[in-house]
Specification:
The complex is a heterodimer of chains A (221) and B (155).
Chain A: E1 4-7, H1 11-30, H2 35-58, H3 65-68, H4 72-83, H5 95-117, H6 135-168, H7 175-180, E2 182-185, H8 197-215
Helix pairs in contact in A: 1-2, 2-5, 2-8, 5-6
Chain B: H1 6-56, H2 62-75, H3 100-103, H4 105-112, H5 115-127, H6 131-152
Helix pairs in contact in B: 1-2, 1-6, 2-5, 5-6
The chains are: A mainly alpha (221), B mainly alpha (155).
C-alpha cells in the first residue's frame, strides 16, 4: 500500500483541541465543588473559543471554516460516496465531521455564556454577570447550564463513537494525527497549508484579552 | 372464627377512613411545610446574592449589605423548625432534604446553628462600613450554608 504521510493539523489546532479536552474535563470535575477553579476553566474556555474563531478565519488551511463547513447537499453527497467506499481522501474535517465541530464549539460557547449568569442556590457562588439579573432568573439559568452540559456530553459521546468507528470499522487511527499532526493517506493528498507564526501570536493575544474581559464580566478599568 | 356484624363493619369503615383522611391531611401539611421552607431558603439565597452583588462592586452599598444580612440573621434561628418529621424524602413531595437530617439530628442542629452568628457578624461589619471585613466575613456565611448543604441536602 502506498501510504503517504501528510501534514493535516497544524500545531495551534492540536493545541486548541487538547486544551478544550482538558478544560472541559476540569470544568466538569470541579462543577458545584471547586467553584474558583470552575470559573477559571470557564474564562479559559471563553478565550480558547475566541482563539478558535480567529483560527477558523486566519489559521492553517484545515482549521478554516471555509475549508470544512459544507451545506446539506454536500453532506449527503459525502455520505453516499463513503457508503460506496468512494469518498475522496482529504486532509482536514469531512463534511459530516464539520457538523460535529460546529455543534461542539456552539455548545461550549452556550455553556460558557449560561455560566456567566448562573448562581448557586445559596446565592453565593455565581458567574461574573450573575449580578445583572435577579436571583430567580440566575437560578433558572443555572438549571439551563446543567441541562446544556448534558447536551454537550451527548455530543462528546457521539464524537468518541465516531473516533471508535474509524478505529474499529475503518482501521484508521484518527487520534494519532490529532497528536502528531500527520496522517497517512493511500494516495497523494493536498496537505495542510500552514499559517504564519504571527497569526498564531495574534490569536493568543485575542484569547488572553477575551478570557480576561469575560472574567471581569466585561467591566474593565 | 371472627364474626363481623353490621356495627363492627361500620366501625372498621370509620376507622379506615379516618386513617386515610389523616394521611391525606399529613400529606397536605408536608407539602405546605416544604413549600414554605423552600420559599424561606429562597429568601436567604436572594439576600445572599444582594450581599455578594454589592460586595463584588467597587463601591458597595453597605446599608443594603447590612439589611440583607439582617434578613438572614433573622431567619437563621428558625431553620431547624422548618424540618418537622415527615417532611423528608418520604413525604412524596419534591424536596432535596436528605433523611440524614432526621437520622443525625444533633449534627444537623449544629450545622444549622452556624448560620446565625456568622450572619450577625456580617451585619455588624456592614453597619460599621468595613468593606474588607465584610468581604472576608461573607465567605464564612457562605461556608455555613455549604457546611449544612454538603451533608443534609441532595446535590
Amino acid at each position: 500500500m502506498n501510504e503517504t504521510p501528510t501534514p493535516v493539523w497544524d500545531f495551534p489546532t492540536r493545541l486548541f483541541h487538547w486544551s478544550l479536552v482538558i478544560l472541559v474535563l476540569v470544568a466538569w470535575i470541579t462543577a458545584g465543588e471547586q467553584m474558583a477553579i470552575h470559573r477559571a476553566a470557564g474564562y479559559a474556555l471563553a478565550g480558547l473559543l475566541a482563539f478558535r474563531l480567529w483560527w477558523g478565519l486566519a489559521g492553517g488551511s484545515t482549521a478554516r471554516f471555509t475549508d470544512f463547513v459544507r451545506g446539506p447537499s454536500a453532506i449527503r453527497a459525502y455520505l453516499r460516496a463513503s457508503r460506496e467506499g468512494a469518498a475522496e481522501e482529504k486532509a482536514g474535517h469531512n463534511p459530516l465531521g464539520a457538523l460535529s465541530v460546529l455543534a461542539i464549539l456552539g455548545m461550549v460557547g452556550l455553556q460558557v455564556l449560561l455560566g456567566l449568569f448562573s448562581i448557586d442556590e445559596d446565592g453565593f457562588e455565581g458567574g461574573p454577570l450573575s449580578d445583572r439579573i435577579d436571583f430567580e432568573l440566575a437560578q433558572q439559568v443555572a438549571e439551563w447550564h446543567e441541562l446544556s452540559f448534558r447536551i454537550l456530553q451527548g455530543l462528546i459521546v457521539l464524537h468518541l463513537a465516531a473516533v471508535a468507528y474509524y478505529a474499529l470499522k475503518r482501521r484508521e487511527d484518527i487520534i494519532r494525527p490529532m497528536i502528531t499532526g500527520v496522517r497517512r493517506f493511500q494516495g497523494p493528498v493536498q496537505g495542510l497549508v500552514r499559517a504564519p507564526l504571527w497569526k498564531f501570536l495574534v490569536g493568543v493575544l485575542i484569547a488572553i484579552a477575551v478570557g480576561y474581559a469575560v472574567s471581569r464580566g466585561f467591566r474593565l478599568g | 372464627m371472627i364474626r363481623l356484624n353490621r356495627n363492627s363493619l361500620i366501625a372498621v369503615a370509620v376507622v379506615a377512613s379516618l386513617g386515610l383522611g389523616g394521611a391525606a391531611v399529613a400529606a397536605v401539611n408536608a407539602k405546605s411545610v416544604i413549600e414554605t421552607r423552600q420559599n424561606n431558603f429562597k429568601t436567604i439565597g436572594r439576600s445572599m446574592k444582594e450581599i455578594n452583588d454589592n460586595l463584588r462592586s467597587s463601591s458597595p452599598n453597605m446599608a443594603a449589605v447590612a439589611s440583607n444580612a439582617a434578613v438572614i440573621r433573622g431567619l437563621a434561628p428558625r431553620v431547624e423548625s422548618w424540618f418537622p418529621r415527615g417532611t423528608g424524602p418520604e413525604a412524596g413531595v419534591k424536596t432535596e432534604a436528605l433523611a440524614t437530617i432526621w437520622s443525625d439530628p444533633s449534627g444537623f442542629a449544629a450545622a444549622a446553628r452556624r448560620l446565625e452568628p456568622e450572619a450577625a457578624k456580617l451585619e455588624a461589619l456592614a453597619r460599621a462600613g468595613d468593606v474588607a471585613g465584610a468581604r472576608a466575613q461573607v465567605r464564612q456565611v457562605g461556608a455555613s450554608c455549604g457546611g449544612c448543604h454538603d451533608k443534609y441536602k441532595a446535590d
